[in-house]
Amino acid sequence: MRGNGQESFRAACEAGMEGIVGKKADSAYSGARNGDWIKLKCDQRQEFVIGGYTLTDRKTSGVSSLLLGVYTDGELVYAGRAGTGLSEADMKELAGKFADLQRMEPPFQLAPKPRPKEKITWLEPELVAEIKFAEWTAENLLRQASFKGLRRDKNPRDIKKENADDDKADEEIQPQSAAQETVRVMETNTNGIIIEGIKISNPDKVIFADSEITKGDVIRYYAQVAERMLPYVSRRILSIVRCPKGISQTCFYKKHPGPGSKEIVTIPIATGGGEMEDYFYIENTSGLIAEAQMGTLEFHTWGSRVDELEKPDLMVFDLDPDEGIDLSRVRQGARDVKNILAELSLNSYLKTSGGKGYHVVVPLKPAVAWDGFHNFARRVAEVMEQKWPDRYTSNVRKAKRTNKIFIDWIRNGRGATSIAPYSLRARKGAGVSMPIAWAELDLVAPDGVNMAEALRRIGGNDPWQDFFRNNQQLK
Known about the structure:
Elements: H1 5-14, E1 19-23, E2 37-41, E3 44-56, E4 65-72, E5 75-82, H2 88-98, E6 102-103, E7 118-133, E8 135-136, E9 142-143, E10 146-150, H3 178-181, E11 186-189, E12 192-195, E13 198-200, E14 206-208, E15 213-214, H4 215-233, E16 236-242, E17 252-254, E18 265-270, E19 276-281, H5 285-293, E20 296-305, E21 314-321, H6 327-343, E22 349-352, E23 358-363, H7 370-387, E24 392-393, E25 405-408, E26 418-419, E27 435-436, H8 451-457
Parallel strand pairs: 24-25
Antiparallel strand pairs: 1-2, 3-4, 3-7, 4-5, 6-7, 7-10, 8-9, 11-12, 12-13, 14-15, 16-17, 16-20, 18-19, 20-26, 21-23, 21-25, 22-23, 22-27
């Protein structure tokens, strides 16, 4: 086949093939590696937490392989090892970082055993690596994993297993004709229901067993909150959490489009290493519903819109308290962030996280690039740490958080994401990351708004109604 190389390559990868062979049009196969014939392999990439490293008896120093993991239900689960891709410069950098992170016990829920003639050094799970790999094995381990670099903009606790095959699930999306869409937002069907022109399969499937919330309930929720939610989600790069069999079964994290994805827009974006990768976003209610039909519960967004991808306009500070910290201290932390920002003439807004802390959100005009944006967020967290060293830390390392609140500023880097306003959380109770008024801070707990309460609230006044009318910007 002459031409259409990118289309052929994408089709091969989506069909589950290993890749394609490309050649110069006028070249004959010689068997020599001269660049006339090349293999293009369908590798996958994602981030993993480094939980240790090995050193074989053939080396006296350095790193033989990295031991990698992902978080599942709050536990670090071993995912395999990466033993290639490590240059001398990489090993030197890693050795310096590993020196302060060594620990006696493995951080993994079930730790791998050392192979013959190798030593394992366990590490605090505080570094994130970008890994290229061929596939997941049947044992949920990586095959042909290769180190591509550290990701300093990622919070290790956010690293979950991504799934490239999830769009092949039995959930079926069938967009209806425009005429059908305009009849009613929702109508019954012999095989299920239709919402925003999307046929919903298995609407009675239980997603949140503790609350007896079904898939149909989840999709109706997103249909009802769409008007409030879309201004914060539309045309922003998404990372999503899918739980197609409910939160009691395996959920997975996804940031790249896959075969079968509907009602999304795919966009190629340059990675930190200069390579192009496909990401995706949605534009309307149909996109929101289509994702929910595929089992998506959580929507996480970039801090910029695709129209100004390199100029972020949404800054988020996530208050992450150490275990056992009283809620009154977390509330005071939110007030302190608000006051620091006010001293800088910046208005901020409050929402629940659906978890342990609050999120303080700052709307901005897209004026500065990611580096300046990221550095500004870091400096705000550092000011809080310096002003109240017994209360707050800007250090992501868990060992530095004892009896303190981590002011998570890392979410403000290029490629990092934060949970979207009005998004459900894939946790017991069907919590929502809900916008609330500052006057409600002492009345609403971080996990105090569930799906039913969120629906009740959107019938009232919008506490963020002037969010997009701010004209503030960084310089």
